[in-house]
Amino acid sequence: MNDSMLATLFFGFPLPPEMIDPRFPAFIQRAGGLLLTLWVTAASLAAGGALGALLALARREGLPAAGSGPVDRIARAAIGLLAGAIVYSVRNLPIMIIVLATFYLPYSLLQIRVPGVVLAIAAFSLYTAVYLAEILRSGFRAVGSELSDAARVLGMSRTQVFMRIELPIALRTMRPDLLNLAITVFKDTSTLSIVAVAELTYVARQMLASRPLDYELALLLVLVLYWVPSTLLSMLATRLAVPQGRPSPMRTSLEA
Amino acid sequence: MFLAASTLLALGLLAGAPHATAAPEAGKTIEKIKADGRLIVGIGQEAAPFGYRENGQLVGYDVDIVRAVAKRLETYIGSPISLQFMAVTDETRISWVQSGQVHMSLSHTNITRKRLANIDFSVPYGWDGKSILYRNTKPPRDLADFAGKTIGIKRSSSAEGEIKAYFESKGLAPPVLKQYDNHGAGIRALLDQQIDGFTDDSSLIIATATLSGSKVGPDGPLSVAATSYSTAMFGIGVPQDDSRWRNIVNYALHDLWLSGEFQRIYAKWFGPASVCPLPLGDHRMEPFVNG
Amino acid sequence: MDFSQYVFGSPYFGWLCRGLLMTLIIATASALAAALIGYWVLRCRLSAQAAWRHAGVAFVAIFRNLPLVPLLLFLTFGLPGLWLELRGRPFPSGYEFHLLILGLALNTAAYFAEILYAGVMAIGPEQIDASRTLGLPAQAIRRWVIYPQAVRIVAPALALRFIHNAKNSTMALVVPLPVGLMEVVGQAGRIAGQTFSWAEPLVFAAAIHLSLGLVLGWALNGWASRECAKIGSGAR
Q1: Domain boundaries, chain A
Q2: Distance (Å, whole) CA B212 – CA B133
């Protein structure tokens, strides 16, 4: 019954209606298998992308000055410290701990129940945001101020300088790292199988319970289904790498 | 360095957060369900015939029972409720009831003294015994043949203590136990000859083996020891110290018995035509007397 | 949170210490294995014969792009089944820990091999030419000229990978291990199974991993900077 195994790996197991939490979109809860893996990856990259861009902007421009009294300064310092602590933790903790914390702490501390898929997207959005902020920072730093200064001298406004000079150059430099981040998120969603999110790896594990005789085949298929997209994308990333005069700081920062 | 220090400080602050799972308000389950409008049930989905996937769909004895019980509960709670499932594992089926994350859980859970320290149970809604599944041999083996052998069990199964107690009471060396995540894994290991036997409630091991294609019986690859080493009663796990909630769960179960619906569901999963027949025999749904 | 059960000397404290010990053991063992495997893959990639070169490239391509969780699942669950089918004999049980180390090592080895290869490529060809002119045999060139310099050039990347490998030890959660061999997150799960709360054990596991990262980072980056300083100075 290999075809039904492939279908299950691609789309997951159908959910009984009672398992859909009506407070959250149904289509994302119904998805399973490779489809859910792709959904979580895409949603995390989108949400995390926005968040990470904001983070990078905040760090570059500084937080808006709501006031400069001592209380405001302390508050800003506290927020800065908290944000820094979160960023540091997410970058230096194993992804497994981040996933476990995201899944077990909300009910443990706040008594709120959230469907696993939503928590999964939250966890990986945070992950994406933090790494993206780092990539953006290095990417823009690599642009070099000579070009922007020259553009300003020629009379371009700050926005024009950003949109037409800095952004395109930075994007070209960051392309391989952005792709590598996407690949990493795609592969790391496999850790969600620990917390019973019905993505590709978990669906395969469930097959052990229902079809123990076909388990090796299921696992092999899972390996292939992860490997093919990762390899294709990473070949694309290598092809897009712009040769640089200076050693790339992004290699080291991304793998942290 | 600075960021590291601030992170450890943040962790310390987090540590000061209230320990929410220590003692959720006891006795308020009905109010919480009414306020939420949802009855949240933890349901196992990895163990035939109680909760498992057939052609991908979630089916099982627990699934049918809980759907029937939920319908009856509406009248006792007094307001419409929607039934919501959360998939539980063997660990979370107890811990989530205890913390209140689910209002009740059905996952072929045996009623044991150890578990009663943490949660309460409904009256039993199923009865079984534990035995050992093994690779078919002639002549067939019985429990004593497994002294000192390697036997697989499921993590957090009540079988661990019971099988040790049985062998020690017979003066035999207890088997060496190896833990597996679910019955499929254990049966796989048994077929791969990694272990000599696999043990759990007989309905669980027989149904899982049969439904996955390994026939259990004299003409199949697997067989079950004739003797059970302990009896088992399955109960619905409910939060500790909430008699009002536990009572209406019991009323709902009793209603199913009186109306005959329970017997129908039971016959579907454990009747003579099922993969793991368990005659009802003298078992009754308590309370016995109607009144 | 309630930390009263974790005081020095309590059983949970002991479990966490055990977990820390196992994390260190898993990290070191897999790193050593990865270094060995990575070295052989590097030799393959530098070989004169195309077949070995392709094998080396294939190894890196395969194990860089396989996520760890499915790989470990395959090694611990899929392999015994395949073994029985193909060889007719049951796969010996009790080796889950070794398979865990192997899985982690294969993954890290692919990265090590690639990093070192980049390092080798970064060595100026004049070094090789000069060594050949001096009459050094190939093995000596590799041992005294190529490898030390390659390692020095890529020392920071190697250090980073080592730390990442240590963090990967948490993937041991998917492998069924006896409780005495579980690393710190596995022990946290064990504690959570008893106290029914993941919050406290997770805080401890996180604190341990952050501290471990700090210590390793400080030590390894110190080593890497010292190595980098030796570049071009001719020191061996």
Answers
A1: 2-254
A2: 14
The residues facing B151 across adjacent strands are B177, B197
Domain span holding position B36: 28-125+235-270
Q: Give the Cα separation of A40 and C193 in Å (integer).
A: 28
For residue C31, being part of any structural domain is answered with yes
Distance CA B250, CA B182 (A): 29
Mean pLDDT of C155-163: 93
Q: Does B69 touch chain A (CB under 8 A)?
A: no
List the CATH number of the domain containing C162: 1.10.3720.10
Q: Which of B205, B231, B257 is the last residue of a domain?
A: B231
Q: How many CB atoms lie within 10 A of CB A64?
A: 7
Tell me which residue in C77, C93, C206 faces B11 most closely, judged by beta carbons.
Answer: C206
Alpha helices in chain B (DSSP H): 2-15, 29-36, 61-77, 92-99, 113-116, 159-169, 183-191, 202-211, 243-259, 261-270
pLDDT over 60 (residue A65): no
Q: Do residues B232 and B134 touch, judged by C-beta distance below 8 A?
A: no
Contacts with C121 (C-beta within 8 Å, 6 or more apart), sequence order: none
CB B234 within 8 A of CB B228: no
* CA nearest to B53 within chain A: A210
Is the same domain home to B253 and B194? no
Angle between helix A70-92 and helix B2-15 axes, rounded to 10 deg = 90
Q: How many domains does chain C have?
A: 1
Q: What is the DSSP letter of B47?
A: B
Report if pTM > 0.95. Answer: no
Q: Which of A89, A93, A219 sits opposite C74 (nearest CB)?
A: A219
The model's confidence at residue B20, banded by pLDDT at 50, 70 and 90, is very low
Question: Measured in whole angstroms, how far is the alpha carbon of residue A230 from the centre of its chain?
Answer: 15
Residue B10 burial (CB count, 10 A): 17
Contact C68 A190 (CB under 8 A): yes
* DSSP helix, strand, coil percent of chain B (3-state; round to 5): 40, 20, 40
**Mean of the pLDDT values across residues B54-61?**
87
- Chain C residues close to A188, C-beta within 8 Å: 67
Distance of alpha carbon A74 from alpha carbon A86, whole angstroms: 18
Could you tell me if residue C234 is inside a domain?
no
Domain shared by B137 and B221, yes or no = yes
CA atoms within 13 A on the CB side of C160: 16
Task: Count the Cβ atoms, other than its own, within 10 Å of residue A109.
Answer: 17
Which has the minimum average pLDDT: C70-74, C194-198, C202-206?
C194-198
Residue B47, chain A, CB below 8 Å: the answer is yes
Average pLDDT, chain A: 83
Q: Which residues of chain C does B19 touch, with a Cβ-Cβ cutoff of 8 Å?
A: 1-2, 197, 199
CATH of domain A2-254: 1.10.3720.10
Whether residues C197 and B21 touch (CB distance < 8 A) is answered with yes
Q: Which residues pair with A150 in a beta bridge?
A: none
Q: Is residue B284 part of a domain?
A: no
At A22 the pLDDT is 84
Q: What is the CATH number of the domain that holds B121?
A: 3.40.190.10
Q: Which of B3, B84, B191 sits opposite A21 (nearest CB)?
A: B84
Domain of C147, in residue numbers? 18-229
Evaluate if residue A247 carries a pLDDT over 60.
no
